[in-house]
Design a protein that fits this description.
This protein is α+β, with helices and mostly antiparallel strands. It has one domain. It contains one helix and five strands, in the order αβββββ.
């Protein structure tokens, strides 16, 4: 009696196909989750700037045009470049621009004003933390 142990080539091929199918569904979702977490960094930073702007405006009567003047203790975003603050006496806006590769989503901008998140930001909906 012959005792054959191991896998046949067909069994190995089936396993490889199953792993390929699972990877085809899992990798895009993983990349989306990673990019969504990077996008949330922008929202956290801009939310901290918004709070600091309100504190600055309550002390000085106008919004700051220099983020260095704000009492913000939040590190600058790692995956975004900070645009200039567009100040006004009764309003302000700040845009963050996505730098580096963005998992196929391209360059996008997240914009905040004194009222919060601006819908004219061009962040893709499926990675926008404010969309869900």
């Amino acid at each position: 009696m012959k005792n054959n142990r191991g896998f046949t080539l067909v069994e190995l091929a089936v396993v490889i196909v199953i792993i390929g199918v699972l990877a085809a569904f899992g990798v895009p979702r993983f990349r989306q989750a990673v990019e969504r977490s990077k996008a949330s960094e922008a929202y956290n930073y801009l939310s901290a700037v918004r709070s600091a702007q309100e504190r600055y405006a309550s002390r000085s009567g106008a919004y700051s045009n220099d983020p260095a003047l704000l009492d913000i203790s939040f590190p600058p975003p790692k995956y975004f470049s900070i645009g200039p603050v567009t100040p006004g006496e009764a309003n302000w806006s700040l845009s963050l621009f996505r730098t580096g590769s963005s998992a196929g989503y391209g360059k996008y901008v997240v914009r905040f004003t004194e009222t919060g998140y601006m819908t004219d930001s061009n962040i893709p909906v499926d990675i926008n933390p404010m969309a869900n």
